[in-house]
Specification:
- The protein is mainly alpha-helical and 258 residues long.
- It is 66% helix and 0% strand.
- It folds into two domains: 92 residues, no CATH class; 160 residues, no CATH class.
Length: 258
């Protein structure tokens, strides 16, 4: 894959990431995606040069040009994150043929969904059903499409990977009445299992728990202890992070012959 194409993929990702920020912030608020973006503080419409991913934030020193109110670091962070994800997808799954292009588009689509879920879950501590169901449906459909873009029945293990991995999360939700784990996490894991398969899916979940535990401990002993603040840490972003660590870097914490 030529270097200039990979650079373009990063730039494309930052542009899409800017749009996904808007989608996540307006989702379930009654606001539509129509109309120009506005400053949430002063309500002024933003001009084109205030909407350049990452650079506008840096040039304006993280403040609104009109009212000088602070702009959340979420915007450039998501833009850069989306750029890196797009870069990795084009690098790992380059669209050199029609079949490879299908795989590229598939991972780009689910990445957009994952980014919106991550933003929404962090802000609202809930994973919207419409997003998790769409993700799971795309993952399930992909199971029936071969690398040659023909239809074929997947193995029973691949089909059951999603439900098997999701079942413990649903059980934790049921037994704890939602205090240990949200049902949205089970729905999210359903799609992760169908994307990665059973063994790789287990690795993603284990990584999510490890990373989540480390971050939670840091939060408890540094932030909560110092500021006496309580904060519910959503688990969805860790599951998504675990999925991409396995997908992009092939990390495995368990190996079983299946």
């Amino acid at each position: 894959m030529p270097s200039f194409f990979l650079i373009f993929s990063f730039i494309l990702g930052t542009i899409i990431g800017s749009f996904l920020n808007v989608v996540a912030l307006r989702y379930n608020t009654g606001m539509t995606l129509k109309g120009r973006s506005k400053c949430f503080s002063c309500g002024n419409s933003l001009s084109w040069h205030e909407l350049i991913p990452v650079f506008s934030f840096l040039f304006q020193k993280g403040t609104c040009k009109s009212c000088k109110s602070k702009i959340s670091w979420q915007y450039p962070f998501v833009e850069v994150l989306a750029g890196l994800c797009f870069f990795m997808i084009f690098y790992m799954f380059p669209p050199l043929t029609a079949a490879q292009s299908f795989l590229t588009v598939f991972y780009l689509l689910i990445t957009c969904i994952m980014l919106v879920i991550t933003i929404y879950d962090i802000k609202h501590k809930i994973i919207p059903d419409a997003l998790s169901y769409t993700f799971a449906a795309l993952a399930l459909v992909k199971l029936f499409i071969t690398p040659e873009l023909s239809f074929a029945l997947p193995s029973l293990v691949d089909v059951l990977a999603g439900p098997i991995l999701a079942a413990p999360f649903a059980l934790m939700w049921l037994l704890s009445k939602g205090t240990w784990m949200g049902l949205g996490d089970a729905k999210l894991v359903l799609g992760i299992g169908w994307v990665l398969g059973l063994i790789a899916g287990i690795s993603a979940i284990v990584l999510a728990f490890w990373i989540g535990a480390i971050v939670s401990l840091i939060w408890m002993y540094v932030v909560m202890k110092r500021f006496k603040a309580r904060y519910e840490i959503p688990f969805g972003p860790y599951l998504i992070l675990g999925m991409y660590l396995v997908l992009f870097f092939g990390i495995r914490v368990i190996e079983l012959p299946l």
